[in-house]
UniProtKB/TrEMBL annotation:
<dbReference type="GO" id="GO:0004493">
    <property type="term" value="F:methylmalonyl-CoA epimerase activity"/>
</dbReference>
<dbReference type="InterPro" id="IPR017515">
    <property type="entry name" value="MeMalonyl-CoA_epimerase"/>
</dbReference>
<keyword id="KW-0413">Isomerase</keyword>
<dbReference type="Pfam" id="PF13669">
    <property type="entry name" value="Glyoxalase_4"/>
</dbReference>
<feature type="domain" description="VOC">
    <location>
        <begin position="3"/>
        <end position="131"/>
    </location>
</feature>
<comment type="similarity">
    <text>Belongs to the methylmalonyl-CoA epimerase family.</text>
</comment>
<dbReference type="InterPro" id="IPR037523">
    <property type="entry name" value="VOC_core"/>
</dbReference>
<dbReference type="InterPro" id="IPR029068">
    <property type="entry name" value="Glyas_Bleomycin-R_OHBP_Dase"/>
</dbReference>
<dbReference type="InterPro" id="IPR051785">
    <property type="entry name" value="MMCE/EMCE_epimerase"/>
</dbReference>
<dbReference type="GO" id="GO:0046872">
    <property type="term" value="F:metal ion binding"/>
</dbReference>
<keyword id="KW-0479">Metal-binding</keyword>
<dbReference type="GO" id="GO:0046491">
    <property type="term" value="P:L-methylmalonyl-CoA metabolic process"/>
</dbReference>
<protein>
    <submittedName>
        <fullName>Methylmalonyl-CoA epimerase</fullName>
        <ecNumber>5.1.99.1</ecNumber>
    </submittedName>
</protein>
Length: 135
């Protein structure tokens, strides 16, 4: 694992959250993207070498909607950049971690992604992400 790539924050109202984080970080989001397969819309803020990803549900059946209903707004996941997502998935699976998908899937910001179940990571959802162009 290379570095913390981004921290994902689940929000109810993306416009309102964009305003809040623009004030906090002193910069506007550089990108907004809808991920239809995950039923979310995202906003990304650059913060040094890392990013903040705001995630809002576009459908009441999305995992973000369920997360907010159960836990409220807040920290959703921590994402780590990797050079070879399949190798990292294999390594973690062999070490006994539960992966939420068998293969990498497309994510926001030109990434391939996979999540590690929070029960295996002290209650924190961990995301592995690899640039799509780096393989």
């Amino acid at each position: 694992m290379n570095k913390v790539e981004h921290i994902g924050i689940a929000v109810q109202d993306l416009e309102k959250a964009n305003l809040i984080y623009t004030q906090i970080l002193g910069t506007e989001p550089y990108k907004s993207e809808q991920v239809t397969s995950e039923k979310v819309i995202t906003s990304f803020f650059q913060c040094g070498e890392s990013k903040i990803e705001l995630l809002a549900a576009t459908d009441e059946t999305s995992v973000i909607a369920a997360f907010i209903q159960k836990r409220g707004e807040g920290l959703h996941h921590i994402a780590f950049s990797v050079d070879d997502i399949e190798a990292e998935m294999s390594r973690l699976k062999q070490a006994g971690f539960t992966l939420l998908s068998e293969t990498p899937k497309p994510g926001a910001d030109n990434k391939l992604i996979c999540f590690v179940h929070p029960k295996d990571a002290s209650g924190v959802l961990i995301e592995l992400c690899q640039e799509k162009t780096s393989f």
